[in-house]
Amino acid sequence: MIIQKSNRLTEVSEYYLSRKLEEIRWMNATGEKVINLGIGSPDMPPSEETIKVLSRSALNPAHHGYQSYKGIPELREAISLWNQRTYKTTLNPETEILPLMGSKEGIMHISMAFLNPDDEVLVPNPGYPTYTSVSKLLGAKVRPYDLLPASPQAIDMEKLKKEDLSKVKLMWINFPHMPTGRRADETLLAALVELAKEKGFLLCHDNPYSLILNDYPLSIFNVEGAGEVAIELNSFSKSHNMAGWRLGWVAGMESYIKTILTVKSNFDSGMFLPIQHAAIQALQNDDDWHRQQNQEYIQRQVVARQLLDLLGCTYTTDQAGMFVWAKAPGHIKNVEEFVNEILQKAKVFISPGQIFGSNGEGYVRVSLCSSRDLLMEAYQRIETYVKTHTPQL
Ligand SMILES: Cc1ncc(COP(=O)(O)O)c(C=O)c1O
């Protein structure tokens, strides 16, 4: 390459799953038929009415122009009502909600809006890799905190409080947590808000999994007074089966939202109007629609666990979200090799845990975003593989 890449890219590499999916595409192109249990992209469709609204709106010749950076008022109103229904929180649709093209993009907007080089950012370990890569891209310092797999509270608050957090500007939290499936309760959220107030940093709750295998959805705004220091990202990707549509939002106090809008309005030129109309419709999905999705996930979870049993992996049975997080058997020294071997020999892909941080070493993550039939086929392939390859396992 004649032209050198920017310095900021020296600390960041291409997203592991992006590289792996390319490898899987190659394998499939040569007729391998890999079953991909690696990614959390729902295979079930959005509600039928959502798709109808999209197509009806797209047929209107007046609906194809640039749109407002803040989204149409009706969408913000619908998001506000959905928050009220789901979490019993009150958000002003005019000033406290900003629709986004996916919450992943929101992580960049928020980080650009609040971080200066050398600011510190608390990120969960294990956790969603984008918190780390975006912080690094901006020259901020990543401070991983342990997300505990099996203690009464997911975060050891006493330990965290004792640390020197004077340079921390932003803390990412995410419950139900990806990849471990751990939930938070109000006590933990309240303790985090208190810590953010005491140390003076912004607490960002990334909340895309609250409706998946989770009976008690919680928002950071369920904590009294959280708005002073906290904002919340949410997404249509998982809860409404709309990952490819790129739809999410950030909610928070007016001054925080305005600051994020300063960044966002310099990035994009508004969201396609028919997508906004369809999003309003999706937010009307009733409890029955969500219940049906969850019933399907419960059945898939059973097969995913059986598949993990075959591999000798162990897991807790109280996980929320759309994955099963499991510990690889003790004699497996290198989980990435273990996963590669399963990919090459059984043609089934599961994610190695270390891509989510050093505390993910020794773990694997299985996605529930494949049909029961496919999961059953993956089970059978792994059964055959285990029978013929036990010594290596
Ligand atoms: C914890 C977490 N946050 C954010 C995202 C991004 O979601 P979106 O599709 O809204 O960008 C994901 C996607 O996998 C995720 O797991």
UniProtKB/TrEMBL annotation:
InterPro entries for the chain: Aminotransferase_I/II_large, LL-DAP_aminotransferase, NHTrfase_class1_PyrdxlP-BS, PyrdxlP-dep_Trfase, PyrdxlP-dep_Trfase_major, PyrdxlP-dep_Trfase_small
SUPFAM superfamilies per record? PLP-dependent transferases
List the GO molecular function terms.
Answer: pyridoxal phosphate binding; transaminase activity
Q: Which CDD domains match?
A: AAT_like
What's the family? Belongs to the class-I pyridoxal-phosphate-dependent aminotransferase family.
Keywords for the protein's UniProt record, in alphabetical order: Aminotransferase, Transferase
Q: Which organism is it from?
A: Marivirga aurantiaca
Q: What is this protein called?
A: Aminotransferase
Using the record, list the residue span of the signal peptide; answer none if the entry has no such feature: none
Query: Could you tell me the EC number(s) of this protein?
Result: 2.6.1.-
Kindly give the Pfam families that the UniProt entry links to this protein: Aminotran_1_2
Start and end of every Aminotransferase class I/classII large domain? Answer: 33-382
* Enzyme class of the recorded protein, top EC level: transferase
Transferase among the record's keywords? yes
Cofactor(s) needed, names only, are: pyridoxal 5'-phosphate
